[in-house]
Fold this protein.
Amino acid sequence: MPSPIRRVVLFEDDPKFGPDVERAIRRRLPVGFSLERFPLDRPPSRANGPYEDRVTTMLQSSTFANAVLLVADRDLSASDWGGLSEAAIARVGQELGLPMAWYARGSADQEKLTRVPGDGRIGLPNVPSDLAHDVSVIARGFVDLEQRLASGRRRGRARPRSPGELLAGLLGEPAAASHLDSYACGDQRVVAEFLAASADGAKAPNLRARRRFVIALGVWIVDVVLRYPGVLLDEVAAASYLDIHPNDFGLPSVRTLFRSAIWRNAPFVDADKPRWWRLRLDDLLARNGVQLGLDLAKKKIKPGLRYCPCHVDASLHAGYYCMVTQKPVSQEHSVGPISWFPPGAELARITRDIFDQVGPWLGA
């Protein structure tokens, strides 16, 4: 029997930006997924009642059957559903057991500064092509995550002792459990759901409880663990940590040298945006008797490889990652840890000049 078509539901009311987003998502969704646009251009069929109830009723219709992800523009003021907000859609998603991702047109830098982890929602870029790419990865990731959790229950695997132990197994690196547990401090929702599931003992959770746990765990992965470099490092963060110039880190020979540390075969893995396990990078350096990735690369490949410069002062080695500029930054020209960054995200910092402007406003 073929698998049902999984649906992504788009809430977008802008007559100019909306069609661009819709086309981009349709092009990027993998086989087995489709996009349904919520009819914000028509008034709700029910004239009375909270918006959440009216949206819930429509999402339970056959048009949106097998929905796996809600995607919403933060500003829905132009719709015929006057007063409907992205926050209301997030509450509907929580009620129905559907994850929710949002984007905000024209405010990318502000959102990077004000996005506090652990709010139960996933932030998206506001460029249609980038947004569509992330939607495709996230939608597929949630389906994969739910299937893996169900498979573990069917096989009677031992109940993990902590959220980090559960996630380390799902992501393919059991040794990262304690580091991942430190990230749980940045998303108390996943801790609460894990404790609720553990309290049930051997009792099988109902469908709504399972879906709620999948959402909490998936949002934790995407919006906390993958967003803040510490246990997993994206290309820029890995280059900075290894002290290899980003351009040199992209060389095939250098990538091959560190390929044993690449994160693979797990929910939310993005082939176009690879990540590396930090502990595997550390193990590789230790086995070769060096402290820096640059030393290993020079030894194994060629002496002329360059260090990773701080984006503020190129005479300084970086070593860290600015969450606002998304560039390598040195300890001297950055501030961290920030109070609302997850404790395990040791490489995440904010460039000092930016922090001096907005730090007090952020309450950092």
Q: What stands out?
A: Residues 158-225 form one domain. The chain has three domains: 6-139, 158-225, 232-362.
